[in-house]
Design a protein that fits this description.
The structure holds two protein chains of two kinds. Chain A is of the alpha/beta class. Chain A has nine helices and eleven strands. Chain A has a nine-stranded mixed sheet, sandwiched between helices. In chain A, strands 1-2 form a two-stranded parallel ribbon. Chain A is globular, with a radius of gyration of 20 Å. Helices cover 35% and strands 19% of the residues of chain B. In chain B, helix 1 packs across helix 2 and helix 6 runs parallel beside helix 7. The chains are: A alpha/beta, B alpha/beta. At the A-B interface, helix 6, helix 8 and helix 9 of A face helix 4 and helix 8 of B.
Chain lengths: 292, 343
Amino acid sequence: MLLLKSKTLIEKSKPPNYCIINYQRNQRNYHSIRAVMANALPSNLLDESLGGSSGGGRMILVEDCVETSGAFVVHHLLKRALNSHSSDAVVFLSFSHPLSHYDRVLRKMGCNLSVQRDNKRLLFLDMLALDHLDRNRGKTSEDILIALYGEIQKAVEISRSHEARHHITVVIDDVSLMEVDANGSSDLVLDFLRYCCSLTAQFGCSLIALNHGDVYSTVDQPNLLLQLEYLADIVIKIEPLATGLAKDVHGQLTVTNRNLRVDSGKSRSRIHNFQFRIKDNSVEYFYPGSKT
Amino acid sequence: MAEWICRTLRDGGLEGEHAPALTINDTITCSLGSFVFDHILSQLSSFIHSQKSQSSGIVLVAFSRSPLYYEQLLKSKGYNVSASTWFKVLDCYTDPLGWKSKLANSGIIANDSLGSSVTAKLCKNVKDLDEVSEMLRHASVSSVASLLSELRSHGQVSSLFWLIHSDLHETRATAALEYISSMKATVIVQPMDGLRGNSACLSLMENNLKRGKFNVHVKRRNGRVKTMVEELYVENSTINFAPFSTEGEVISQSLVPKVQFNLQLSEKEQNDRAKVILPFEHQGDGKNIQIYDGRKSLNESKGDSEQTCLEKEDSGRGEIIYFRDSDDEMPDSDEDPDDDLDI
């Protein structure tokens, strides 16, 4: 939403989903309008490889490792889900950090999570809080996960009925910590994720889950990892460079679109591979060799 | 060949025999098994819909995809199954463990159904199980195997097929299910040799998402196992099968190292090579290479050879019969060949 006012240029204000600029009938402001619009809706290699639109009914699996953390992808997808359309909502299940952490990170990226939470566009479930879901009252892991799933489905149902929200994204950070919470039962975690996936079919929501590939790599049968890869429509793998450490390039991303049924008719590549560099407030994505 | 499988499933088993059963097997590197499953489901639906089939209906047990997905799939092929009596789905996807009904009973969530029929009425029908892998997660191999055996021997089931991801289970679990089935279809990665480098790896991965090799093993009644191979490729959400070409092998053969001398034979050289007469024992006339092992006395062997020589002389031709007294020595052996000289 653009509010056209007097002749002096005002900087983009804090709330993320609108900005006030000045409009003067000359070239300079035309470019500033364009720059602001570009900042409001950035499109980079990651967005392009995910298919542009938010695309309901998909499961996105983000797989990272110790050398290259995939947290930046989760932050980017979270910001994308909250920015894309005013009627979208996010249910965030956090096993690793409290809200203040994500708030600090997303503020630098130009997104205010506290405001979104107040606007009922973000439901943050902090699993680190011990009294959440009556965990200290001796319930079994299965009961806790069932109750958690119940909360998520209830939130999705309420969100959909409220102001006809078109698209809900469920974000889980992360799966290996959920397994710790479930006392090591990967079967329970998989059951929980399958139930969350059934929400994608029932309500058309998206599911984004972060998992650590190297946690399961030494197990004889890396079952949970494979099961999640089978479940996922899009797999984003974050790995270090094959050649080692570098100053300007922090790692590489491989985005695999496993869902062959969604075919736009034109022959699009199913696998995208590019490199990234994490800066203070943003992340730069570029093809190998094209970094200037 | 995929059509042959569909026809076999359509025709069912003979009287007194177990129903034919197909296992579709794939792995994460080439996970096109679900496309094969959908293709076979569509083909059988068309047979039943046009009443060309022995069976009168399909019962689908859905574990990994929602019943709505299958309704939409068959609708896209032109079969409106929502009002049909010949297609039933047993919904094990939406609430397999009863979590949703538990939560609905305690009033936490609303109890929505996905609008598909759930009852499984057994008539003479085809049964398909979408993802036995999911069944194996919740039940033991023996219970799943016994269920499948019982289904095969049930009088009202004409044929059966299921999909399994073999990399999710132990080899014995997959093998147990393959023993139960009469046909096994495996989707594997199409071999492409001679590719190196990261970009080549990516193109190989991309290729594996769309193409694969389709291996079928069929157990015949007489005990013989027949193997057939086809290529499969997916485009525009539909799967296509093509006869297997040896293009890949030709590519690998032409990948000789680039050096400054000629490593390959010209045609004339190949012909000349074929004309070379090999030493006595490699004439290729089918006789085994005999090694003299010292048990027969030399006289006897001489007698034999004389006899054969006489025979041969009668025919006017000579023949050399050569008994080797030892195998070829390996080069660079430590033995000194002059050691056995008795000087």
